[in-house]
Amino acid sequence: MVDLNPIEQLVVQAMKELGATKAEALKTADDIAKKSNRPKSMVTNTLVALANKGVIKRVAREKASGYYVVQA
Question: Residue 72: inside a domain, yes or no?
Fold first, then answer.
């Protein structure tokens, strides 16, 4: 289990509540920011950090990238 700071924990929890737990259920940074009630810039930076830790996956798409939880 990877150690997550409070903001990372909040973002992962918001993703789980949105159902972003598999590749077929991607959520955008906008969706996650609204759910977590945090600024999009903070959420975007946190998503990058979580992807680097291997907690989430980022899927590049035509418009907005999608994210989902792979471990938590």
Answer: no
